[in-house]
# Entry
Amino acid sequence: MSEAAGMRIAVFTPLPCLDRYVSVSAQPCAGAKVLGRWAGEWCGGVAGNFAVAMAHLGASVHTFGWAGDDSSSRRCVAALAAANVNVDMISTRADVGVNRTVILVDPAGERSVIVFPADRPSLPDETWQSALARLRPNLCYFASWDAVAKELAPTVKAAGGLVATTLESTALETSSPEHVRLPSVDILFLSREAATLLGWSTSSPAAVPAGWRQGPPVVVVTLGSAGAWYHMPLEGQSTYAPVYHINPKDTTGAGDSFAAAFCFYWLHGERNEALLARANASGALAALALGPRSGLPTRHAIEDMVANQ
# Structure
């Protein structure tokens, strides 16, 4: 068994997600009409994309969450299994469905996303804690930090695993950022917008907001075309790396690919510019194909891109 195959990753996939794609001549503004054409429908979602990206890198990936017994839910679960993701911990319930999105992709590969969320339970399945304790994952990723994540994170920590999560700017806009407490999180991913709402200076990561020295040990901020940096508040260390210059076809899933590669290489002991270079390469490669998972790279592809820059 390879070193990567021995890496156990758990991913909380709250509900399956279907992405419906429309290619547009330009991103529409208020009152505008643009040309569009149907481009296809794929299984996606932040958590599902992260899980498949990790599997492409060679990790042993186990998802847990809910799925309905309808055809769309079964299709999404089957897509995870086909990507070598273990789905044994997904709980089937008749009262849940799928999240749906409509994604508008323009000729430059930029996209706008319209989300149609489905209702889901607010409490974890009673079997998940014991399953996570037995699995003893090296890392567990939660696509959002909610009540389920807060309840399950201590189980992951007690089993010796790291906890990674993403805080979306949309969630922060409806809560009080100064009240965000993340004592169980080891690696936190933020967009430029979310970082700004939390008081981080995206141009000066060493300027740690008040209280964050007791927060997550690793804070990662993605800046889109301006690159990415991560900061370790306890050590006072910051690392920045620029993006790879590509002609993107679709940036959907690129951030999920970046996060998966960052976690994967972090667990392998990579740090500083070498770590960010690989995460940036993973995101860039993912953006070269249409669809949220079509371009998710293998470890070999990432290493090849880094070596040839």
